[in-house]
Amino acid sequence: MKVPSLKPRDLKKLAEEHGWKHARTSGGHWIMTKEGYRSVPISSHVGEFPRSFVRVILKQLGIKWKVGE
């Protein structure tokens, strides 16, 4: 199944389900952190992220998209 386009809050929720924590907010971005990984900013002021961008963020988060997620 293809990676869907997602709203920022849905992407943040997915990250939190995989152990990421919302460390702080900087400007219009949520800064997500997880031990052993670099911090990942997620823009909070976008209507919906296109599929290509979601794919990039998931890669940075170390999350593989599976059918049914």
How would you explain this protein's 3D organization?
With 69 residues, the chain is an alpha+beta fold. It has a single domain, classed as Hypothetical protein (Metal Transport, Frataxin, Chain A, 2-Layer Sandwich), CATH 3.30.920. Helix content is 30%, strand content 22%. The chain is built from 2 helices and 3 strands. The chain has a 3-stranded antiparallel beta sheet. Strand 1 and strand 2 form a beta hairpin. The model has no long low-confidence stretch (mean pLDDT 91).
**Spatial arrangement of strands, main beta sheet:** 1-2-3
Label the overall shape.
globular
Number of strands: 3
Helices and strands, in N-to-C order?
A: HEEEH
Task: Please report the first level of CATH classification, the CATH class.
Answer: Alpha Beta
Report the total helices.
2
CATH superfamily: Hypothetical protein
What's the main sheet like? 3 strands, antiparallel
Q: Regions with pLDDT < 50 over 5+ consecutive residues?
A: none
Q: How would you describe the oligomerization state of the chains in this entry? A: single chain
How many structural domains does the protein architecture include? 1
As a percent range, the share of helical residues equals: 25-40%
The CATH topology name reads Metal Transport, Frataxin, Chain A
Percent strand equals 15-25%
Rounded to the nearest angstrom, the distance between the terminal CA atoms is: 10 Å
CATH architecture: 2-Layer Sandwich
Give the mean pLDDT.
91
